[in-house]
Amino acid sequence: MNDAFSIVLKETAQEKDVARLQSVLEGASYVKAAQYISKEDALKEVMLELGENPEDIANEFASIMNAAIKANEDAIQKQKEAEAAAAKAREVLGAMPEKVVIGASGSIIKNVKSVIVPNTDHMKGIPAAAVAGIVGGDASKELEVIARVSPEDIAAMRTFLENTPITVEHVDNGLTFEIVVTLYKGEDYAKVRIVNYHTNIVLIEKNGEKLFEVVVDGAFLQVSADGIRENKAVGVVPYFRSSETELVLLYLLAL
């Protein structure tokens, strides 16, 4: 029985050390032959076997992995839009909803449907993300709406998913990232719209009354909240605190 094995040397190995190792191996009674293959010769052999440079393969694999990581990070951000909108809508409604309608842009529907929602015991998809915000979310925790979820919350999420009508609809208003969550309880409803990133709430509405609104029209934003309007505003960043009436607006005024 003949067995063959390879010994990989460090690039810093000196020629005299390589020669000494080869001599020791060749002098061993259990070794028939020992052959030293340089890095350059080894690369040629691998290229003949694979048909291409292994470094190119490694670089391509790294690119694929980086793209996959980026796509997963983007999907998680889109999940957070659903969580944040649902948590805020639940707060505004003031009750546990009987029906949920979710409007989402195509990119959100495409990328979130098969991604696990963090802190939910492996639940997936837009409905799960919204339910996480409704049942276990804290609207005041803007960046981490469902950072603190108990086992009881997860059980309640599953029960809610199984027993509550939840509809996901496609919306196309020319925005890559957009989600609108509407929650219904009897004759009452609350609606929250988020665009671009998960803390950017541009609409809060309850029973036909717009409590807060940022009209998004391409690069132009017109703000209206408690009678505030600024037609010169070319950029507005709304920041919410504990309620929809406590907000700070940063205006970038046109000259």
Structure notes:
- The protein is of the alpha+beta class and 255 residues long.
- It has two domains: 15-61, no CATH class; 62-253, no CATH class.
- The chain has six helices and ten strands.
- The chain has helices spanning 15-27, 39-50, 54-93, 106-112, 125-136, 151-163; strands at residues 99-104, 166-170, 178-185, 188-195, 201-206, 209-217, 220-225, 228-229, 233-240, 247-253.
- An eight-stranded mixed β-sheet has the order 2-1-3-4-5-6-7-8. Strands 9-10 form a two-stranded antiparallel sheet.
- β9 (233-240) and β10 form a beta hairpin.
- α3 crosses α5 and α5 (125-136) packs across α6.
- The protein is elongated.
Note the topology:
Elements lengths: L14 H13 L11 H12 L3 H40 L5 E6 L1 H7 L12 H12 L14 H13 L2 E5 L7 E8 L2 E8 L5 E6 L2 E9 L2 E6 L2 E2 L3 E8 L6 E7 L2
Parallel strand pairs: 1-2
Antiparallel strand pairs: 1-3, 3-4, 4-5, 5-6, 6-7, 7-8, 9-10
Can you summarize the main beta sheet? 8 strands, mixed
User: How many whole angstroms does the radius of gyration measure?
Assistant: 29 Å
**Oligomeric state of shown chains:** single chain
Order of strands in the sheet with the most strands? Answer: 2-1-3-4-5-6-7-8
Overall mean confidence score, pLDDT = 75
Shape label: elongated
Number of domains: 2
Which structural category do the helix and sheet elements fall into? alpha+beta
Number of DSSP-assigned strands: 10
Uncertain segments: 218-255
User: What is the H-and-E element order?
Assistant: HHHEHHHEEEEEEEEE
Euclidean distance between termini CA atoms: 86 Å
Please give the count of helices.
6
- The helix content is 25-40%
Portion of residues in beta strands equals 25-35%
